């Protein structure tokens, strides 16, 4: 009977150690971090491009076209 109790105690200690090792391991942590970084970069890039497109489409290009027409308007 003592042998059986000692064997069960040993298995319980081994299972606890294995559980602790699995829970404390950092295997696979980099994948989630990398995915989040890529997602943030894509969203920020899209916002930056949308802002630049809006700025150049409505503000810069019409005034640039107007200035070029005024510069080459020889009539007066």
Which characteristics define this entry?
mainly alpha; rod-shaped; transmembrane helix; 76 residues
Describe this structure in words.
With 76 residues, the chain is mainly α. The chain has one domain. The protein contains 2 helices and no strands. The longest helix has 43 residues. The chain starts with a helix and ends in a 5-residue tail after the last helix. The model has no long low-confidence stretch (mean pLDDT 84).
Q: Tell me about the biggest sheet? A: none
Order of helices and strands: HH
Determine the oligomeric state from the structure.
single chain
Q: Kindly, what is the distance between the CA atoms of the first and last residues, rounded to a whole number of angstroms?
A: 113 Å
The residue-averaged pLDDT reads: 84
The tally of helices reads 2
What is the CA-atom radius of gyration, in angstroms?
Answer: 34 Å
Strand proportion, as a percent range, falls in under 5%
- The outline comes out as rod-shaped
Low-confidence stretches: none
Which secondary-structure class do the elements indicate? Answer: mainly alpha
């Amino acid at each position: 009977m003592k042998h059986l109790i000692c064997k069960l105690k040993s298995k319980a200690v081994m299972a606890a150690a294995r559980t602790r090792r699995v829970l404390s391991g950092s295997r696979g942590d980099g994948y989630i971090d990398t995915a989040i970084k890529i997602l943030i970069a894509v969203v920020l890039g899209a916002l930056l491009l949308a802002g630049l497109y809006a700025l150049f489409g409505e503000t810069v290009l019409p005034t640039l076209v107007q200035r070029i027409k005024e510069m080459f308007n020889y009539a007066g």
